[in-house]
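Annex B. Sample input.
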Amino acid sequence: METTTKKTDFRILSLHRRIEAQRDAILHHALYPKMQSLKEVRVFMEHHIYAVWDFMSLLKTLQRELTSVDTAWVPTEDRASRKLINEIVVAEESDVDLNGEPASHYELYLDAMRQVGAETRPIIRFVQTLQRGYKPKEILRFNIAEVDEDCLDFLKATHAIIKRGKLHEIAAAFTFGREDLIPDMFTALIKKLYKDNPEELSAFVYYLDRHIELDGDEHGPMAIQMMHHLCKEDDQKWLEAEEACVEALEARLKLWDAISGKLG
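Annex B, continued. Sample output.
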């Protein structure tokens, strides 16, 4: 048992080393110091909202595969992963807003965009296109919803991981490709702007604080346990998991580069 634990720890350390360069580039990106006024915040949010929505695609895929969502319910094998995914779904879909009313994190973000004066019509049009029955692959291939090209590329990268249908890759992109990618420096800059613009930024500060609060609990260790369950001691699966993480992080880095370029 001790040998297995050490080997598993080595695999996680190896994965972290594999993605270190990409994570470091994101966490120290030139984008963050450019957030000096509400104008820059608006541009950032108009792009980042797609990552907020897109996170749910990974989460819902994991929920479908790791929990029982059929009418005839049966218990799934991995109890810990079931608990993890269901807890995150509740947190993401059924949190509360500034007034204590139920709201998903996507809706919290939309509220924050409206408050700061960011353009919400493109993301709303995108979601409405889905509500009309178009499949994600149709929207992404033909850009029916007229999504910004940089945001579209980001969505395509996530969809490609999901489309391959390898649960360990999806879980890896979810666990390591999306965690803690908003650095403390960014939050500090937003809160500095908030002091002069409380009526425009209170909802965004609340959103950021909720994420810090929710990320600081037991979900991290549970997500690692989920990776152990899905990959076990299969070298090929761990390698594919690493590559999926890199894929997800490079897509985020490309989006950050695009936003930074638009800020000048």
